[in-house]
């Protein structure tokens, strides 16, 4: 079996965490290709290395001395090196890097968190270090060239049958370093799994897989033992942030499972992510509940709208003009609602409303905010009657007013909109009703 093994920032935050990583790698000979994130927080009061690197850049931009911040970064890496007795001579590299900080692109600057953490991890594991720029081929727009990446990997494998690689970044055709979105090391591991046609992609973090609900809202929610790619995509998008939502795409077409595991509790079963799970008869009704606050709804009313052409598209053209993404678009005979992220329109909302009025001349237009969206996700809901009724009953008994409801054609989720103030109460009511 071939496994790609990725460790997140919390798994690489200190010498103690490095030791846990080594024990996990040595426990299974099939863990030969390791992807590493930048060192994260050692404790809640600490800082992530990547955040400190972004702060260095901000200091440079505002003509403030960045070196005190860099010394914190340097100290973190040297602390790990000395405590573990490593031989990697990173002192000179760190000093040279410090001198170049003002001249580096933002991408190259922040990528050094993964780079230096991986250098130390490779030394500690006794594995070769391979830089991500020598493997991960990215286009200028941030997309991935899988053919080129596979070609690069073949060259590396001629020299090494195992290695440690930094996550989060790759190289564009002009040779420049380009980073992914935050949490992108999850994607790096997924790319490696795809191009090596791995049997399993292990993603090690600081939680034991996915939970059925946010533990900050629901006390001791159940663990999700198995979940499909589609369900994971829905839950991740709605705020369940254990795994980067885009980590699914590189491996989905090859049906490579993802196993989300806990570095601090490697004995826990974690969550296995699969393409399909055939358990409609006796499987759980729902897989999980997730949600986010901070939305608003634009309600547009126009009589006889169903007999007119271009009313909805006219409103959407206005939003396209302002480059605003639409979350949901529930509609009726003479009305429709456009649900948006509030932060996307905080500076342009009144202009958008004025343009919609001019474009389609509605009978009325009204904004409802603040709004929270909650997704009830489950692959078995479409096979069992009464899911929607159960949802309405649970929220009604909890005294929660539903402002919006939407169900996708895939029927794996039902999304409801509630007032921000009712968010926690609604999540608890839904969990108590569905997770029994």
UniProtKB/TrEMBL annotation:
One of its GO terms (biological process) is homoserine biosynthetic process. Its EC number is 2.7.2.4. The keyword Glycosyltransferase does not apply. Substrate binds at residues 50, 114. Pathway: Amino-acid biosynthesis; L-threonine biosynthesis; L-threonine from L-aspartate: step 1/5; Amino-acid biosynthesis; L-lysine biosynthesis via DAP pathway; (S)-tetrahydrodipicolinate from L-aspartate: step 1/4; Amino-acid biosynthesis; L-methionine biosynthesis via de novo pathway; L-homoserine from L-aspartate: step 1/3. The keyword Nucleotide-binding applies. One of its GO terms (molecular function) is ATP binding. This is Aspartokinase.
């Amino acid at each position: 079996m071939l496994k790609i093994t990725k460790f997140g920032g919390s798994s690489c935050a200190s010498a103690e965490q490095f030791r846990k990583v080594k024990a996990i790698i040595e426990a299974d000979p099939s863990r030969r290709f390791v992807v590493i994130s930048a060192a994260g927080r050692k404790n809640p009061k600490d800082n992530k290395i990547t955040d400190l690197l972004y702060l260095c850049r901000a200091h440079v931009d505002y003509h403030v001395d960045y070196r005190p911040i860099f010394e914190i970064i340097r100290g973190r890496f040297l602390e790990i090196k000395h405590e573990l007795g490593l031989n990697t001579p990173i002192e000179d590299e760190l000093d040279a890097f410090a001198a170049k900080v003002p001249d580096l692109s933002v991408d190259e600057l922040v990528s050094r968190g993964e780079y230096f953490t991986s250098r130390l991890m490779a030394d500690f594991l006794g594995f070769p270090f391979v830089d991500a720029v020598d493997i991960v081929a990215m286009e200028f727009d941030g997309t991935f060239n899988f053919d080129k990446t596979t070609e690069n990997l073949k060259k590396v494998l001629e020299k090494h049958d195992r290695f440690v690689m930094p996550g989060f970044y790759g190289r564009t055709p002009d040779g420049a370093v380009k980073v992914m979105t935050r949490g992108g090391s999850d994607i790096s591991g997924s790319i490696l799994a795809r191009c090596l046609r791995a049997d399993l992609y292990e993603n090690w973090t600081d939680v034991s897989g996915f939970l059925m609900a946010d533990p900050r809202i629901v006390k001791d929610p159940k663990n999700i033992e198995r979940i499909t790619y589609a369900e994971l995509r829905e839950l991740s998008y709605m705020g369940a942030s254990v795994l980067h939502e885009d980590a699914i795409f590189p491996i989905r077409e090859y049906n490579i499972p993802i196993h989300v595991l806990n570095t601090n509790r490697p004995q826990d079963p974690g969550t296995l992510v699969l393409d399909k799970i055939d358990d409609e008869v006796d499987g759980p009704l729902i897989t999980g509940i997730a949600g986010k606050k901070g939305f608003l709804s634009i309600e547009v009313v126009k009589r006889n709208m169903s007999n007119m052409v271009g009313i909805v598209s006219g409103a959407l053209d206005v939003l396209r003009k302002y480059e605003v993404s639409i979350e949901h678009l529930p509609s009726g005979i003479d009305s429709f609602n456009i649900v948006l992220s509030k932060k996307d329109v905080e500076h342009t909302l009144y202009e958008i409303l004025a343009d919609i009025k001019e474009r389609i001349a509605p009978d009325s237009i009204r904004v409802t905010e603040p709004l929270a969206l909650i997704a009830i996700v489950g692959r078995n809901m479409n096979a069992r009657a009464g899911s929607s009724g159960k949802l309405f009953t649970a929220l009604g008994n909890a005294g929660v007013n539903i402002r919006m409801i939407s169900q996708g054609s895939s029927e794996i989720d039902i999304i409801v909109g509630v007032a921000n103030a009712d968010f926690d109460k609604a999540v608890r009511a839904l969990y108590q009703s569905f997770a029994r």
